[in-house]
Amino acid sequence: MAELFYDADADLSIIQGRKVAVIGYGSQGHAHALSLRDSGVDVRVGLHEGSKSKAKAEEQGLRVVTPAEAAAEADVIMILVPDPIQGKVYEESIKDNLKDGDALFFGHGFNIRFGFIKPPAGVDVCMVAPKGPGHLVRRQYEEGRGVPCIVAVEQDATDKAFALALSYAKGIGGTRAGVIKTTFTEETETDLFGEQAVLCGGASALVKAGFETLVEAGYQPEIAYFECLHELKLIVDLMYEGGLEKMRWSISETAEWGDYVTGPRIITDNTKAEMKKVLGEIQDGTFANNWMKEYEAGLPEYNKYKKADEDHLLETTGKELRKLMSWVDEEA
Ligand code: NDP
Ligand code: MG
Ligand code: MG
């Protein structure tokens, strides 16, 4: 069973006694910087030349310096820029500003797990990863609650890294909800697998295949959109609230029977065998290396896939139909 930690297990004064640099001010960066500041922590934000969020961070009362200045001033450096550029930011701005006893923090284990960042031995390497988008992390903190976090220590140079990580998690409200201990390896591999096989890759491929099947059989795209995409939210909300049991309690007996007999014909043993292959390619670094190569080449394939889906009938149909539903907020 997972080990859980709450407010009483974490000592906020540890992080209050450090100087924290938050590099990046996007989804996670703004939430961490503002909530740490409100928890009485000495925070500066490190942003690159021409940053779009610099003005916002300053408006919100934070001091903004360059990533290198932030790393030099601070003894806890949290890297919250996009994963594919973290290696470059580390090489250019952080590496030469690390001293023994400093701590390098991450919100996701990708660069450490696959060796794109190799910190020196004298530095603590920790992860505090909220299990929710940054805007929820910040809103929950302001409301006196928190989003659960997972916390890991990859390198414990000071023998105090875990207490430091828990203290940081407390500073962003994570221990109010509960913190689960993990490792960089477990977090990175399960995160990549989940988003590829189930949440993003699996779900969008399932929706597209269902939609295409109905449209190719001559049904109206608008009807197919409602059945295969729109209603998915209702089902997922029920699963989120009460697992498969609550979803099955809420749907009709006919739908439940179809769930039992047809689900396994769609997600078959072959699908699971492919999932195992996908997991293998995550574990052996194939996925990470291919993705970094694609990123460095300027995203040629990525842009092709993106364009193809933008033009898909599912998407053009949905764009029109969502205009009929005033409660569906495109910006949300
Ligand atoms: P975002 O894309 O939202 O934010 C990126 C930030 O990095 C922006 O402020 C951007 O600047 C800045 N940036 C871009 N390039 C540079 C640079 N060269 N130097 C300094 N800053 C730069 O990132 P996320 O918050 O989504 O992700 C950050 C980390 O958190 C990742 O490791 C991610 O895996 C992890 N994470 C993300 C979650 C999420 O919900 N999004 C959930 C859990 C973990 P600009 O001001 O120009 O926009
Ligand atoms: Mg992810
Ligand atoms: Mg129906």
TrEMBL record:
GO BP: isoleucine biosynthetic process; L-valine biosynthetic process
Catalytic residues identified in the record: 108
GO cellular component, one term: cytosol
Positions with a binding annotation for Mg(2+) 2: 191, 227, 231
Cross-referenced SUPFAM superfamilies: 6-phosphogluconate dehydrogenase C-terminal domain-like (SSF48179), NAD(P)-binding Rossmann-fold domains (SSF51735)
Keywords noted in UniProt: Amino-acid biosynthesis, Branched-chain amino acid biosynthesis, Isomerase, Magnesium, Metal-binding, NADP, Oxidoreductase
Residues that bind NADP(+): 25-28, 51, 53, 134
KARI C-terminal knotted domain ranges (all copies): 183-328
PANTHER family reported in the protein's UniProt record: KETOL-ACID REDUCTOISOMERASE, MITOCHONDRIAL
Protein name: Ketol-acid reductoisomerase (NADP(+))
